[in-house]
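Entry 14. Structure prediction run on the chain below.
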Amino acid sequence: MTVRAAWLPPAGQTRADTRAAPTGTMTPAGPLTTAPGIIPGGNPLALTGTAGLQAQLDVGRAIVQGTTAQGAYSVVVTVPEVLTFTPGHAQYDRLDLVVLRVYDTLFDSTGKSLAVVEIVPGLPAAAPQPPATPACSLPLWQVRVPVGASAITWASALTDLRAYTVAAGGIRPDASTTPGAYVGQLRDTGARIERWSGTAWVPYPAALGGIAPSTLAAGSYIGQWRDGANGPERWNGSAWQPFGAWTAYTPTWTATTTNPILGNGTLVTRYSRVGKTITYVGTLRAGTTTNGGNGVWNMTLPVQAANNGITVQGPCSYVAFGSNNYIGNAAIAPGATAVGFTVKTATNAAQYDNVSNTVPVATSSVIGLSWAITYESV
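Output returned:
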């Protein structure tokens, strides 16, 4: 018969009938197969080194999928298993596997019908590779056995290969590389919920638009917010950025006739953006090879100003070190792409002029210009 039901026939039910029928259905891997893995709960099938070349595999439950005809085997380790690894090779390291294996002579002709924990030894090599996982078995751990080893340093030798399986619709509690079983399956990586897209695990945008706690290590989507130590932070796809974060900017220093040359001077500017509000600060300090160019100076903006009919002003200061400090205004016209500077040039309050290579004094290595201005961007 091609249609079989568990516990329905009055007699003649086979072991394969029981495994194939969906009693207590676990995660499906196909129409007639089950996703293999460990059933979560505590720390199942953990491997702990004991002494020398011996280790202990703790208790736990698992599902081992055979061929489609075999079905899925429910396996349990009820008492810790002691495993003894063979000594290291004289010349090379090797990688061994610890697996949970099912022998079924009805399908593999081994003459055995039992489940066992086995060590599958790898081949010693300069760059050792793990051995192939035997049929009808579930890999649990990879163990690196060093060259000439009569004892294993367990803390550095173990690689956890355990993958979990849950009941259909359940959320897997792991972040392994094991693919999902079906589109829409969910897993909890320990940092976030992810969904199997059919080709990859992708972040699941739970609580879309909500502000996550500061413990969230990575965002689920670009634009997500979390409550950081210094206020809200936005996920940009690769990092959390504080709300209103400051960003370094390299402006272009221009003049109306001939552009200046910074030479060995310094020009440091930064800006912060919150929505369409830009705060722009900067400091210029001329050096011995700085050339002020010819004409009125401007510094390009990090973001173009809004063409809103308003000229925005902020403070600026032109300093001739050891001589004078010429205070004034930085100004941005509507729709402008640069900021200009006007400073007081004499004690008369009405005497202001645009900063240039000659105003308020000729450019030299002892002059500096600073400004701070907030404006609306496009």
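Residues 1-8 have pLDDT under 50 and may be disordered.
Filed with the rest of this week's runs.
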